[in-house]
Amino acid sequence: MQQTMQQHAGLVDALAAWREAIGPEHVLTEGTRLGRAQQTTFATWQRSPALLEPADREEVSACLRIAQRCRVPVYPVSGGKNYGYGSRVCPQDGTVLLSLARLNRIVAFSEELAYVTVEPGVTFRMLAEFLCRQDSRLMPPVTGTTADASLTGLVVERGLGKGPYEDMAAHTCGYEVVLPTGETVCTGFAALPGAAAAPLRMHGPGPSLQGLFGQSNLGVVTRLTLWLEPAPALRQRAFFLIPEAADLPPVIDALRNLLLRCGGLQAEVINDYRVTAMSRQFPFDLFTGEAALPREWMRATQGDGYGRWVAGLFLWAGDEAELDWRRRRLTAALAGLSGQLILEEPARYDPYDAPNGMRSTYWRKRMAPPPDPDPDRDRCGLIWTAPVLPLLGPEVSGALEEIEAVVLGFGFEPSIALRLVGGRAAQAVVALVYDRDVPGADARAAACHAAIRSTTAQRGIYPYRLGILDMAEPPVGAAQTAALLASLKRLVDPQGVLAPGRYIRS
Q1: What is the rounded CA–CA span in Å between residue 431 and residue 177?
Q2: How does DSSP classify residue 213?
Q3: CA-to-CA distance for 22 and 79, rounded, in angstroms?
Q4: I want to staple 236 with a disulfide (CB 3.0 to 4.6 A). Which of 197, 292, 346, 419 is the partner?
Q5: For residue 185, what are the β-bridge partners?
Q6: What backbone torsions phi and psi does residue 387 show, to the nearest 5 degrees?
Q7: Which contiguous run of DSSP H or E holds residue 239?
Q8: Please, are residues 420 and 269 in contact by the beta-carbon 8 Å criterion?
Q9: SS3 of 455, please?
């Protein structure tokens, strides 16, 4: 009881100090915005007593100093569009939300050196529109989800982009980070006064700090630099329809060899359930929805266009001769394999021609996707699992068959995308998509997610990122590594107030 009273007194004092530091209108303890911030695409019990909306790095620093003094936990979020992993919901109950959405400036840009420096409130859409206004020859990064997601948010979660930006964190440098104590540090050359190389190199002299602030609770990233890629002149899409599950391993091996030897290629392999969910909604007029959609129906409906798996391939090049060379390499790599290669006509590169990744989140809803999709608001059920597999045909095929069996056993469609990253690893992305308004669906989906994690761990396969469902029981790592990270956490966050329960435990 005494501890609860102390915690309440600390929150009361903190709220008063935050109102003075950032303005009372930016400290929300009730209302629609706070309520919306506590919604996500699966069942959660955590609640936040307040939402803070600082405007700049100085206000972020002030918020964290107050949190330390009053011993009130805070949880930073960038845009809050982290659908399927927890959105803006905190891992622990009673944690105050620290929104960085108002930090939305594009701080610096160089066309010649191909970089842009942004704050965490800058979205993919904002950056694309900025580059368009600059009449830039540089390619805006694209994500598989909404264009209104935070670029910085995706980077610090080490999320996947598209095309040359698949590993977006590897395209960044010069982090500005507010530590839990309110102090500010910078990474790489950005730590040195007036360093000309601050936006150009990831590492400066000495140990590198940048990696400590991805998927961690050691600091709040308030600025970073993203290296941009020149926009290609031409692009061409290709699809390889893989008829049966047994035909998948040789295709995976062929694409691995191609990726290791040929740049300018993006490869993604998706299963039939994923293809169907991207183009339509569940046919409730034909099936009750109590079980997974039968594969026989998809096979009959799609006819000659059906593939148990479909490899989506994206070629880009600077001119027609280069594109022709890449196309011939692709055609030769797939020659003789069971499947059908479909080549679209080459086209001028269009940076805004990106798929709408939000449509499939409404797969099981009995409403059409609205013009302003919001899976949290519309109670779409979505949980992601993202295991990393060695890019070897038999291993990939065996793991995916096991995952599909688990998901089908719980009555869900196994919607799977497989990103072939760099020719060595396959990044599987498994979506559990359901309707949260169906009684019992939340609990069944959480149990299915746990079963997928258990099944893949038995193969030595683990996810590359975690959602808040996983934070209570993260993968068991080496004791020495966990102890070192805990020591760092206690050093930079003596009161343990920054994002408790997220990845690193003190």
Answers
A1: 32
A2: G
A3: 19
A4: 346
A5: 177
A6: -75, 150
A7: strand 234-242
A8: yes
A9: helix
Query: Residue 416: its pLDDT value, please?
Result: 97
Encode burial over 484-496: b for 16+ CB neighbours within 10 A, e otherwise: ebeeebeebbebb
CB 40 within 8 A of CB 88: yes
Please tell me the predicted confidence (pLDDT) of residue 476. Answer: 61
User: SS3 for 378?
Assistant: coil
d(CA 80, CA 169): 19
How far is the CA of 350 from the CAs of 138, 184, 316, 353, 448, in angstroms? 12, 39, 11, 5, 39
Coil/strand/helix, residue 291:
coil
User: For the chain, give me the number of helices (H) and strands (E)?
Assistant: 12, 20
Contact 239, 312 (CB under 8 A): yes
Placement of tokens 């939300």 in the chain: 97
Say if CB 211 and CB 314 are below 8 A apart. Answer: no
Residue in this structure with the two tokens 């303005």, named with its chain if needed? 23
Q: Please report which residue ranges of 175-215 form alpha helices under DSSP H.
A: none
Q: Among all chains, which residue has been given the structure tokens 């948010």?
A: 153
Phi-psi region of 270 (alpha: psi -120 to 50; beta: other; left: phi over 0): beta
Tokens, residue 160: 């996947």
Closest CA to 132 of 207, 231, 211: 231
For CA atoms 19, 17, 120, 97, the dihedral sign is negative
Tokens matching residue 279: 């183009």
CA-based nearest residue to 482, from 504, 454, 460, 458: 504
CB 155 within 8 A of CB 83: no
The model scores a pTM over 0.85: yes
**Cα(308)–Cα(295) distance, rounded to whole angstroms?**
9
Count Cβ neighbours within 10 Å for each residue of 318-357 and write b for 16 or more, e otherwise. Answer: eeeebbeebbebbeebbeeeebeeeeeebeebebeebeeb
Q: Which run of H or of E encompasses 485? A: helix 479-492
pLDDT tens, position by position, 172-203: 999 999 999 999 999 999 999 999 999 999 99
Question: CA-to-CA distance for 95 and 67, rounded, in angstroms?
Answer: 11
**DSSP codes joined into one string, 39-84:** --SS------S-EE---SHHHHHHHHHHHHHHT--EEEESSS--TT
DSSP calls for 21-43: HH-GGGEESSSHHHHHHT--SS-
Low-confidence ranges of the chain (pLDDT < 50): 1-3, 5
